[in-house]
C-alpha cells in the first residue's frame, strides 16, 4: 500500500519509538468489527460513515494532517466511503492515538489503540485503558479486533 509522506514518516517513527504500527490485518479487523467492511455503512444515527465508521471530528483531525503532508484532502461525507482514502485516514488516526498513548506512558498495542478508537481517548483514559473495565459492547468489539488482527 502507498502511504502519504506523513503516514510513511509516522510509521517509521512509530517503529523507532515503540514498535507498534497499524498492520493491514489490524486495519482490516477494524473495518470488519465496525461495519462488516461495508463501504456504504452509515451508523450512529448518521454520525459515523464508511467501513471504519469514522466520525466527522476524527476525520477532520486527520484531514489537517493529510493536508500538511500532501495526502488526500477529501470531505468526510465522500472520503469515508472510499476504500483507499478511508484506509489512509484510519492509519493516520490510529497513529495519532498511538502517539498520544505513548506520550501518556500507556502500552501501545492493538487493544489500547482500538479501545481509544471505539470509546474515544478521554473515555478510555477514565477506565485507565483497561479493556475489562469498558462497557460490555466495547469489551466485545475490542476483543474481536485483537483476535482478528493476530
Task: Explain what you see.
The protein has helices at residues 5-17, 24-35, 56-69, 76-79, 83-103, 110-119, 121-126, 136-148, and strands at residues 42-43, 48-49, 54-55. With 150 residues, it is mainly alpha-helical. It has a 3-stranded antiparallel sheet with strand order 1-2-3. Helix 2 (24-35) packs antiparallel against helix 8 (136-148), helix 5 (83-103) crosses helix 6 and helix 6 crosses helix 8. The chain has a single domain, classed as Lysozyme.
Query: Which percent range fits the helix content?
Result: 55-70%
Low-confidence stretches: none
The mean pLDDT is 89
Gap between N and C termini, in Å? 19 Å
Major sheet: arrangement of strands: 1-2-3
Name of the level-1 CATH class: Mainly Alpha
Give the overall silhouette.
globular
* Total count of strands: 3
What is the strand and helix layout of this fold?
Layout: H1 5-17, H2 24-35, E1 42-43, E2 48-49, E3 54-55, H3 56-69, H4 76-79, H5 83-103, H6 110-119, H7 121-126, H8 136-148
Antiparallel strand pairs: 1-2, 2-3
Tags for this entry?
150 residues; mainly alpha; 3-stranded antiparallel β-sheet; 4% strand
Put the structure in a nutshell:
With 150 residues, the protein is mostly helical. Helices cover 62% and strands 4% of the residues. It has helices at residues 5-17, 24-35, 56-69, 76-79, 83-103, 110-119, 121-126, 136-148; strands at 42-43, 48-49, 54-55.
Amino acid at each position: 500500500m502507498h502511504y502519504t509522506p506523513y503516514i510513511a514518516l509516522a510509521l517509521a517513527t512509530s517503529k523507532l519509538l515503540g514498535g507498534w504500527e497499524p498492520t493491514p490485518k489490524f486495519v482490516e479487523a477494524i473495518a470488519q468489527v465496525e461495519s462488516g467492511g461495508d463501504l456504504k455503512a452509515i451508523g450512529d444515527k448518521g454520525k459515523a460513515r464508511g467501513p471504519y465508521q469514522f466520525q466527522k471530528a476524527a476525520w477532520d483531525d486527520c484531514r489537517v494532517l493529510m493536508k500538511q503532508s500532501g495526502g488526500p484532502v477529501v470531505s468526510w461525507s465522500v472520503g469515508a466511503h472510499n476504500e483507499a482514502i478511508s484506509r489512509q485516514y484510519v492509519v493516520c488516526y490510529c497513529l495519532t492515538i498511538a502517539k498520544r498513548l505513548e506520550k501518556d506512558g500507556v502500552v501501545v498495542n492493538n487493544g489500547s489503540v482500538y479501545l481509544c478508537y471505539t470509546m474515544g481517548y478521554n473515555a478510555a483514559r477514565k477506565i485507565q485503558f483497561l479493556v475489562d473495565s469498558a462497557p460490555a459492547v466495547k469489551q466485545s468489539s475490542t476483543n474481536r479486533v485483537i483476535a482478528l488482527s493476530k
